[in-house]
Amino acid sequence: MADHNSHDMDDAEALPPTPGARVTTFINRKDVRQTVLLGLAYTIIFIVLGRFAYPHWMPKVMSKQMQSEEDILIWFTVISAPIAGVVLGIATQSFMKMHRGDTPPEDGIAIRTNTPVVIIWTAVSALFCTVAIVWGLVALNTESIAAATDAPKSLIVDVTGSQWVWSFYYPQQNIHTHTLNLPVNQPVTFNVVSDDVNHSFWPVQLGVKIDANRLVTTIAHADPTKVGPLDVKCAELCGLYHAYMETSGAVQSPTDFNNWVSSIQATGGVQE
Amino acid sequence: MTTLSHSPAASRPVPNPHKSLITKLNMGTGMVVGIIFCWGTYYAMKAGRDMTDAHNVNKVLLMSMFAWSVGFLVGIGAFIGPFRWLIGKDLTDEEQLYLAGDGQGISRYFRYCTDHKVVGIQYLVGVMAMLGVGGTMAMMIRTNLATPGSHFVTPVVYNSLVGLHGITMIVAMIIVATGPFGNYIMPIMIGAADMAFPRLNALSWWVLFTAIPVLCSAWFLGGIPTGWTAYAPLSDQAGPGMNAFVATIIIFAVSTAVAGMNITTTVVAMRAKGMKWNRVPIFVIGATISVALAIPAFPTFMAAMIQTAMDRTIATGFYDANVGGSGWLYANLFWIMGHPEVYVILIPGVAALMEIAPVFVRKPLFSYNAAIAGFAGIAGLSVLVWAHHMYMSGWMPSLNGPFMVTTEFISVPTGLLFLVLIGTLWRGKPWMKLPMLSVYAFIWDFLIGGITGIYLSDVPADSYLHGSMFVTAHFHYTLMGAALTGAIAGLAYWFPKMTGRMLNERGGYISFWFVQIGFNVLFLGMFMAGAEGQPRRVADYAHLFAHANLISTMGAYSVGLGMIILLWSVIHSWRNGKIAPMNPWGAKTLEWTVPYPVPLTNFETPPVVTSDPYGYGRSAK
Questions:
Q1: Contact A99 B430 (CB under 8 A)
Q2: Domain A154-266, CATH among 2.102.10.10, 3.30.450.40, 2.40.37.10, 2.60.40.420
Q3: Which stretches within B238-322 are classed as H helix?
């Protein structure tokens, strides 16, 4: 609410002589106090929502990528909360003073503009925006570097989307599967392609998504960190049975994963 | 501002150039000629073609649809003027006056009428019909999604519902403010006698009108499987219904180009004496920036669709990777239109609310310059952000960073729009009429839409949220919560000037609360479904998402009920509402200085403007 320290002092009925006295008069005004309280309440509500709603709604975090994405959703909400507080605080305070009836109320105070407020508002929003951008760029860059350095030790999975099934080929193990099983704590590289129209490969709990295109291979990278079941969905409308283009899988301990691979190799390298 | 006495339009002699063809033509003749052109083209092209080949079917259907559009325009008389020019003549004065439709009663709404006020009403009724159809489809979508495995409709019908709901609403939202209010109110607001090009104005409406039956025909041709984004190569693969979509977009792009040039020219060239740029009402500024942004945007969509049409008719393979094309070409062209387009929709709605807020708070608009900077900044940045829709497409991952930067910077000019509104509210005592109530609804809805937009603009967060219900909820908060709320406020605000009657208040309030509460329940539920991991555009879903979807569906029914109440209020008030005084809100813009019915040339004497229209408020001591 500091943005409004100098707000519309130009209209003050009895303008206090010194800047310090003006601030004191401003802060002591009833409408200002109401606005501050409302703004604080909104800020707290938004912070609590961001902190608890997203982790509650989102599926289990099973990769570094998913962790980074959940953090961004939480922290962007927390950062936006004070701005939402200012806007909603002022709006609610004004709403409470409503005038009803069939004739307009008497005129308010003619505040045409307030240059310091406009400048501070713009600067603060640019600052928040820069924080969000830098955060995003750092996260993006961390992810790109991890993908590049992990590439040599990655498990490779060739993913093919076709209307309306996902199929997987593990070249290092030479197995064809229709479920996506991955060993925990080993980086994985997905080479994704489509047989027909665009699909979007989405192993939900890994927080990774990449479109499958006809004749072009797109690459995605994930670092599974937790053992658990995986849902694989299609996130790009691909025709009639788009809704049903899904499969399952799991992030497993290395032993379980190796057993799974062996069981498929034992049946000729094709999952039944 | 001048107060005017007026002579009622009806007392004037109605010009009737008996011998002229234009007196014989109307919507009916347009439809007859359109249908003749359509069927003629259909049978002529079908003859001798192998109609088991999909390419031939597409050729025949597309050309028949365009023939309908051209035929309708011929039949309604749209080309009489240009034809006269070809033979070195023009319409006579009497014919021009007849075309303006003065004193001709209700029949002029069904003719090629050049009066901007008639065009405004045509747009208003057209938009309400589109919202009704699009809303009905939304109710069917939500009914199907109420419970997992409901099978209320088949997946074919569901996919068509999603696509046709999308395109119907996008078209409706593009014209929802600039159509009715941009045509009816804006010329009066700037003190003009009419639009700069009245015949083009009529053309823009009737061209758009011809697109409506074309789009509806999609249902009878097997629907569209692609959603409104019509991504290739799915659109290359799609059945005959896709032709209806392609033809609709091409026809609609012609309409917006014509309307956009007309509105821009009118505002630049026809403002009243003394209306300098810093005295132009903010709605006019917003509408102009919006249509100016549409002028480069929609031709790109048209080009994308022409290429889709060529892929589908003569197998050019622009988007077909098998023959060297690329779906990414389509995605780029589409979003180069698609992202400016959301601001084409948003800006007039916000501008309408900025016009409304000072009137009801009885204070000047806070920082007119910040408002213009906000609109201009958004418009400028909006052409540089399109690929944020393609972060996860695999096209140029190295550009994700730069597009994230441009996208997030849009929040700075957007923040200025909030500042202008809350600055106007600050220390005011708002007169809580229906238009003013919408200002508060806008602030809440657009705040949520804006903040969730920041998540989505962030590449890592988007790799979870992209293609999920979260995105659907986000853009409904901006387009419906913000832009449609602005347009409904505009309707309540300008209803007295457009119909001569007051909008029923009780109906308006009841509708407002049903719509706004329902809307928030609906889309907060959808945020939840998206965060839980439900993809968008799915006809069915896992049990995990059942709660979130049931919440959404309940909210949707509340919105539907609210909209029906609003429709009833509008129809009831239009017929029987309380007669409105000339200036019921005590506003200072020029449209409130003219009586109802507004005279043909709006002002008996051209107004002279000496200040901006926001001179409310006690002056500072």
A1: yes
A2: 2.60.40.420
A3: 241-269, 282-314
